[in-house]
Specification:
five-stranded parallel β-sheet; binds BIS(adenosine)-5'-tetraphosphate; alpha/beta
Length: 194
């Protein structure tokens, strides 16, 4: 199996690049943001709990997202590999993921870290707000909070994987196609060394 974590701050282009990567490498796309938004749309109890947190720019509890990922791994026993998008977002999630993958006798091969400066992130999210209908995009105050939570809770996850020597930093500014090529170059190198 070939498993990738696509890592980066809110608005760094994880969702945008994931769509292209899964098409090229035939990986199963696991986006906790998308899974949570589906639950919200369906109005499930989990979705209702998530909605109140996401709309304030806060993270959903670890056990909720880990449970969703665990079910998704179980539901795809034949997968060639997984692309984790927006997960893990805390050290506890990263540890839980390592355990789940060990049970499946596999592991993360690479953590691709999209580097984008904060002003560019805010500009992108303001742009996305015009079409996404996402309340967590529309309010600049909430966007700043999401960036702060990212720095405090999610950025340490990069250190966790750095200790495993798995992090590849990728310049996340430029055209979508340029960034995609950068990601593909790194993935190809990793695959060749498997
Ligand atoms: P996510 O859905 O993961 O979303 P995101 O981080 O906001 O965006 P992403 O990086 O995917 O950016 P995108 O491609 O859309 O999370 C939403 C919320 O769910 C979180 O805040 C949290 O509350 C909750 N959540 C999710 N996972 C969780 C977890 N594991 N634990 C706890 N809570 C969790 O790109 C952004 C914009 O930029 C788009 O408009 C795009 O068109 C544009 N763009 C992309 N690439 C560009 C480029 N190269 N140049 C210019 N613009 C570009």
């Amino acid at each position: 199996m070939f498993n990738i974590v696509l890592f980066g701050p809110p608005g760094s282009g994880k969702g945008t690049q994931s769509e292209k990567l899964i098409e090229k490498y035939h990986l199963i796309h696991l986006s906790t943001g998308d899974l949570l938004r589906n639950e919200m749309k369906a109005g499930t109890p989990l979705g209702k709990e998530a909605k109140s947190l996401i709309e304030k720019g806060q993270l959903v509890p670890d056990e909720v997202v880990v449970g969703m990922i665990s079910s998704a791994l179980e539901a795809n026993p034949q997968a060639k590999g997984f692309l984790f998008d927006g997960f893990p977002r805390t050290i506890a999630q990263a540890e839980a993921l390592d355990k789940l993958l060990t049970l499946k006798r596999t592991s993360i091969q690479a953590v691709l870290f999209l580097m984008v400066n904060e002003e560019e992130l805010i500009t992108r999210l303001v742009g996305r707000a015009k079409t996404s209908g996402r309340l967590d995009d529309a309010d600049p105050e909430i966007q700043r909070r999401r960036q702060d939570i990212y720095k405090n809770e999610t950025l340490p996850v990069a250190g966790y994987y750095q200790n495993q020597d798995k992090v590849e930093r990728i310049e996340g500014e430029g055209s979508v196609e340029e960034i995609f090529q950068r990601l593909c170059n790194v993935i190809q190198e990793k695959m060749d060394n498997e």
